[in-house]
Structure formats: C-alpha cells, structure tokens
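Write out the 3D structure for:
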Amino acid sequence: MIPDASPYYTYSTEVTDAYLHRSPGAYLKNPTPDSPKALKLAYRRYRRRMPIPATALPVNVLFVHGIGMNKGVWHYLIDRLYQRFSGSGKLQISTVIAIDTVNHGESAFANRGRLGQSYDWHDGAFDIIKVATKDEASVFFSQTPKLNILVGHSAGATTALYASAYNQGLFDSCVAINAVVYLGPDEIQLKNNTITEWIYKGFMNSTICVEDPVKYREEVFQMYRRNGFYYKCHPLILKNMVEDEIPSDLTSVSSGDKIQLNTTTEALIMLYFYRGFNNEHSRICFSNINIPVFSISVENDQANTKHTQELILLLKRVHRGISIPKATHMVHAEEPELIVQLLGSIMEERALLNARL
C-alpha cells in the first residue's frame, strides 16, 4: 500500500467469516448443519496511533467498494482523512474498516473454489453488519461517545443503504457515492449493451501473461490503466487497488506465466448483470432508512438522474443531496481530494450536531 506507513495510524489485514445464511446460489456447495462453513471476508483495519484528546469526538468509518474494485481503492483517501483531522481538537479519526466483498480482492482469493454463480447485494449488507457488530464490536459499540459513519461507492453504496435499513442504530449516517438504485426498461437495455461492449473490449479480463518477471506488478498496473474504467484514476489509488488483486501465494514469476488476479472475469460479468436492486423489496428497504443519507451524485454518470430522483423519493426526509458537476462515476478514484473534503465536511457537521444531543 502507498503510503505503507503513517505517523497517524497503523493498519493490518484481517480475514473473518462472512455472513453464513446467504441467498440461493451464493455457495458452490451449500453449508450443512454438520459443516456450517461460511465464506471468508477480508478487510483492512486502520487504528489511530495516539490517544484521542478528551475534547475530540472519535469517528469510526466503514468503507465499501463498488464492482471491479476492492478495499485498496480507499487507502489513499483514508490516509488523507487521518491527516486532515490530525490536529483537530473537535474530532479525530479513530478506527477505519475497508472491506473486500466476498468475490473481490483478497476475499475472492480466500474463497476460491467456494463461490457460487450468484451474489445478492443484500448479503453484502449483512456482511457489513456482521463485521461491525461481531468482529469489530469493541469499536462500533464502545461506550464512549463516538460517530460511526458508513461510506459506499456504486454497488457498495447500494449495499451500504441496505445495511443502514437492516440495522438502524449501528451507524450515525451513510454516505452513498453514485449509488445504483434504479434502472428503467430503456436504461436496462442500454446497460446490457454497454456491459456486452465492455466484455468485447476486454475491460473485464482478469488474467495477464507476464513479459518481464521483475516488473510484473507494473504490467498489471498498466493493464488496468489501459482499461476504460480506470484510465483516469489517481495513480496511487490504482496502484493500491492493483496490490489487492495480486494473489498472496504468488511467490515467483517467470516470463510467459499467466497470473489469475483475485477478482475473476466470471464474477465481474455476473455482478454487472445483477438487477436485484430494481425490485419492491429494495424500495421498501430504502424507504425504511431513518439515518441521514448524504447522496453524492455526479453530472456524467449513466442514468444518474433516475438514480437521484428515485433516492429522493424513497429516502424522503433523510436524503441530503450533493451534486458534483463535471465528474464521472469514478469520482472517488479520479478526484480523491474532493471526496476527502466532502467526507470531512460531513463528519464535521455530524460531530457538531451530535455534540448538542
């Protein structure tokens, strides 16, 4: 990860059990009462080095990535957030969690040979809740005053919204960056055509043939850089994301070797064709959310207007809209400093209001 160390925090990668009772098709072979073996979930945990001043409110954040990304996409932003509040006497970043969903990054590596042919975004919400309430309960349920904030991008934003509905008291607020919440019939056909084009162009390729064994990491990075999804990404963010895609058991590489990256082409295709957010159950979930939702939307995003209108309709009084002109769906990876500023402002506002309770 870049940076690999900080005077403000330490970090480590943890692997835990994912939520066990998943939707049909989630497992290649379903767990049984005699063998209740859950999928694995990898997450990176960041912890503040120094004690938090008595006058400062601790802020805990949980990040969820979108399709085709992983927890590494958040590392640079997390580092900048720790820096931003390092001298603040009013709030301090305490603990941060960044999750790899079960079929992405290091979670996908841990689940090789066990993942089924489908994935329900609602299961991802229960993974979030499981990590926060079981694995990191001492952080998110501590008795001291604190602020727990949930942040997601794209499919991760939708998953974060589900988690906000399913466990109302866990998070103070949710930040949904370009959430995918609605596609009309015309948008579905357009999206299907676009996905088919992405497949044809090789944007979902998950293997690479090594040319120079000494520089294979750079070759993986350049493969992503040529991809239409990622070519505008901040270079450090993309390098961190690539790092979480290289299998941990890769000890030696020779010229001509093929590397299978952690997130597979099959998983990406399955996820991009997912339409489970487009049903009544999802709309009921969204309408039951009772914490503030800061919905960040951008000008240049497919079906963005429909997503935004649907969120406003369903979230009603808890919706807080933030519109970014001249930005794209990947704004968090392309303009990280802007997102850091917005997240920082949201945290300051929530801390100020919580101080009055």
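The longest helix spans residues 336-354.
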